[in-house]
Amino acid sequence: MQRFAAAAHDPLGYAKAWKERTGRKVIGSFPMNFPGELAHAADTLPMILQESEDPITLGHGLLFPFYCGYTRSMVDQAVRGDFGVLDAIMFGDHCVQLLGAADAIRMQLPDTRVIFFQLISSMCDPWTQGRSEESFSKLKAELEDFTGAPVADAALHASIRLFNRNRGLIRRLYQMRKTGAAPLGSVEMQHVVKSSMVMDKAEHTQLLEALIEQVENAPAAAARTVRLHLSGHFCQAPKPEVLTMIEECGVTVVGDDLYHGFRYISTDVPEEGDPIQGLARWYLDRNTGVPCPTRVQNNVDWDAYLLNAIREERAQGMIVLMAKFCEPHMYYYPEVKEAFEKAGVPHLLIETEHESMALESLKTRVETFVEVVKHRQAA
């Protein structure tokens, strides 16, 4: 857990040490749909760029203040020179603010290779699979041009198997936490997932196997009064102090759909057949498994998924963590709110910021919410 926490706390420091140790390239990417398997098969270290814990300073002059904390932090890190360890950066297109951040970073890092690819956002049209395959094929070709070597199907299949193994082990931890068999809190689970976004997958998987063996032999987690689901936060990790505060209010978090949580590890890539077709299938299946408001799919609903997850987890309510100025979340939240009110399931919305938050006032709100949940259960 200490090694997971260290990589989660200083991801660029981990990447620098890995690069010095191996002599290989590092490719940073924005969330949420970059297939790390492709970059891994190209013999590089794929890492998802993380929001910095430092206050935003120099980056204020390049992005609007009403951009989310993640995008402003990305630009700030670029201006400060923190991304010097990166040989390339992969940008996606699932948010207008990320596109603005990509342009600002391009200006700041003219010598860093920028790889941009656009994935179709309409997930259930007849041509979606084919268009996704085209996008991943172009991405593969650009990676080959960047590294100067072909990405063989055999190497890509091996990377897919390794990444699937890693996701499967983390899902096992999630299942154990849900049943109370894993004495891991939300901060520890976040360290596990966040470090998986950063570390060499083989190293991370080896540590995961050791952790699961230890957890299986550990005493069961102490049960608290109220079981809750955490939802939201698509790009950045919730602050550990917020997660700790929630649990200190007598809460057991039994599930989540956070990006730095179950959303990231929910779906495997098919291991048989053409690997590019498999990655395209993974992209489509992820939105069916854990729907995302940045994608459009008329046969799945995020609010319905959340209600089903709460029933399956035997949760008694939900806390929604919404990053300030996250437009996709802001647009979709009214549907979640309406669905939960109609179903009679209590939920609490907490807006989070990159800058410091008034934890004491937030704690009062969470404590009040927990008491409401208790009274509803008693009634």
TrEMBL record:
Keyword Iron: yes
Keywords linked to the UniProt accession: Iron, Iron-sulfur, Metal-binding
A family per Pfam: HGD-D
InterPro entries: FldB/FldC_alpha/beta
Gene3D superfamilies: 1.20.1270.370, 3.40.50.11890, 3.40.50.11900
Family: Belongs to the FldB/FldC dehydratase alpha/beta subunit family.
Protein's UniProt name: Benzoyl-CoA reductase
The species this protein was found in: Kumtagia ephedrae
Lineage: Bacteria, Pseudomonadati, Pseudomonadota, Alphaproteobacteria, Hyphomicrobiales
